[in-house]
């Protein structure tokens, strides 16, 4: 189970477990009352796809398609695909023997390429020596939901009496004040959270709920502001 | 263009056009590209385990089967619930009046697994609903973009930049007591998409 290193408003810090809150699963697909499952099937061979046929027959292709069905390889079509290995192919459709290099392309919001560069690895930062810390930004729940789209939620879990008290107290303070607290990582405690290497950075707000002697401390994650698009 | 969303509060209809909000459209995006030693773009493909068939993009399709191997046409596929009862297809709600419930607590919106967010543009809005949204109130109704076997929930709200519909499936929060058992191990979600500065 994964852990996160977090500190509270008094700069006390500890490692606690977390797990995602997920929506109920989609209804199961069925034929009558029997569950159905899917298989990947081959539609064509590598010499029968449009690209290959087009370069072979050029402008005669439409007539040849009508007359001879070169797109159908009856040896291959409909064959189920089980396990495969990922490969990279060059522009001649040859399998590369060496691992490719990578570049990163940056596009603006209209889809125009702005820059290309050698990508930098972004390491996960939730389990570092430096804990995730409270920032100065607190929002009332009603303001937070009108400013950000919270598309993921993680629940923080205690593992003993000390971590129960630690998380319970954070949840209680937030719930009583009807507030959500922005937390951040890094030296200044302002960076977004990255949960796995090269994963998306998320802005994270803590939200607390208290019911008698039970609590829920939830990390609401957002990577999207609620902004109208023209 | 999709049909409009029609919502009803106190017997008064409001009509909105919907426009999906995506990160790409707000912030731009990054993409990683594989290149060979000549700086030419390479494409990802698959090779069958026996090394006999190279599978390029577009060379495969998906078939549906039941135990025993019988193939099922996609138009014959339905859905069942956890008790094996057949579910009915619920039609799209677009273009059909949906009654609003609320105002609801922001906690209810926070407990939503969000699937889609729309910017909604009013063709017609009742004074009553507009006043309520201006005050910061949040309303909810049923929503399905297309026919499906489960109904999604739509939350309507307004901020300084416009009106929004946040769509998703309500989820359940676990309240933890001191002796709560730790959660079961789950695989972390992997994201292929790379970040873009939001703030």
Structure report:
The complex is a heterodimer of chains A (230) and B (199). Chain A has helices spanning 50-57, 61-68, 141-144, 161-177, and strands at residues 3-7, 13-20, 28-31, 34-35, 37-42, 80-81, 84-89, 101-107, 113-117, 133-140, 148-157, 179-184, 193-194, 201-211, 214-225. Chain A has 230 residues and is α+β, with helices and mostly antiparallel strands. In chain A, strands 1, 2, 10, 11, 12, 13, 14 and 15 form an eight-stranded antiparallel sheet that branches. Chain A is elongated, with a radius of gyration of 26 Å. Chain A starts with a strand and ends in a 5-residue tail after the last strand. The mean pLDDT of chain A is 92. Chain B is extended. Chain B has helices spanning 23-27, 106-110, 127-134, and strands at 5-9, 12-20, 29-35, 43-48, 54-55, 60-65, 71-72, 78-80, 98-99, 112-124, 139-143, 152-159, 162-170. In chain B, strand 1 and strand 2 form a beta hairpin. Chains A and B meet through strand 2, strand 3, strand 4, strand 5 and strand 6 of A and helix 1, strand 3, strand 4, strand 5 and strand 6 of B. Strand 5 (37-42) of chain A pairs antiparallel with strand 6 of chain B.
Record the SSE blueprint:
The complex is a heterodimer of chains A (230) and B (199).
Chain A: E1 3-7, E2 13-20, E3 28-31, E4 34-35, E5 37-42, H1 50-57, H2 61-68, E6 80-81, E7 84-89, E8 101-107, E9 113-117, E10 133-140, H3 141-144, E11 148-157, H4 161-177, E12 179-184, E13 193-194, E14 201-211, E15 214-225
Chain B: E1 5-9, E2 12-20, H1 23-27, E3 29-35, E4 43-48, E5 54-55, E6 60-65, E7 71-72, E8 78-80, E9 98-99, H2 106-110, E10 112-124, H3 127-134, E11 139-143, E12 152-159, E13 162-170
Parallel strand pairs in B: 1-9
Antiparallel strand pairs in B: 1-2, 2-10, 4-5, 6-7, 10-13, 11-12, 12-13
């Amino acid at each position: 189970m994964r852990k996160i290193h977090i500190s509270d408003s008094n700069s006390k810090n500890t490692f606690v477990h977390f797990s995602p809150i997920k929506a109920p699963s989609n209804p199961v697909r069925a034929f009558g009352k029997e569950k159905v499952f899917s298989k990947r099937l081959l539609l064509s061979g590598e010499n029968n796809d449009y690209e290959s046929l087009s370069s072979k027959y050029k402008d005669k292709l439409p007539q040849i398609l009508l007359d001879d069905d070169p797109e159908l390889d009856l040896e291959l079509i409909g064959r189920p695909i089980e396990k495969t290995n990922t490969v990279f192919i060059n522009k001649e459709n040859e399998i590369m023997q060496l691992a490719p290099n990578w570049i990163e392309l940056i596009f603006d919001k209209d889809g125009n390429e702005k820059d290309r560069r050698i990508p930098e690895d972004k390491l996960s930062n939730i389990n570092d020596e430096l804990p995730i810390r409270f920032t100065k930004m607190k929002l009332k729940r009603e303001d937070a939901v009108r400013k950000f789209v919270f598309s993921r939620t993680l629940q923080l879990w205690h593992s003993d009496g000390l971590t129960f008290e630690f998380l319970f107290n954070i949840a209680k303070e937030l719930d009583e004040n009807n507030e959500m607290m922005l937390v951040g990582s890094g030296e200044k405690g302002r960076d977004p959270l990255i949960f796995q290497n090269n994963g998306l950075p998320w802005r994270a707000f803590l939200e607390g709920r208290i019911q008698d002697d039970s609590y829920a401390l939830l990390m609401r994650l957002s990577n999207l502001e609620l902004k109208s698009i023209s | 263009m999709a049909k409009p969303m029609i919502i009803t509060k106190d017997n008064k209809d409001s009509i909105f056009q919907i426009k999906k909000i995506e990160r790409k459209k707000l912030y731009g995006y990054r993409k990683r590209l594989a290149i060979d030693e000549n700086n030419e773009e390479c494409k990802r493909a698959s090779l069958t385990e026996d090394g006999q068939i190279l599978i390029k993009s577009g060379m495969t399709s998906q078939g549906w089967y039941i135990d025993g191997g019988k193939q099922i046409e996609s138009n014959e596929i339905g859905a069942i619930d956890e008790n094996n009862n057949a579910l009915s297809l619920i039609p799209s709600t677009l273009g059909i009046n949906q009654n609003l419930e609320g105002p609801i607590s922001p906690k209810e919106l926070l407990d939503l697994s969000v699937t889609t967010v729309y910017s909604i543009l009013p063709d017609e809005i009742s004074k009553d609903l507009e006043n309520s949204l201006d005050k910061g109130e949040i309303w909810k109704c049923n929503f399905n973009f297309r026919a499906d076997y489960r109904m999604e929930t739509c939350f309507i709200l307004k901020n300084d930049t416009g009106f929004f519909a946040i769509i998703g499936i309500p989820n359940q929060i676990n309240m933890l007591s001191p002796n709560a058992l730790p959660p079961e191990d789950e695989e972390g979600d992997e994201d292929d998409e790379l970040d873009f500065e939001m703030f």
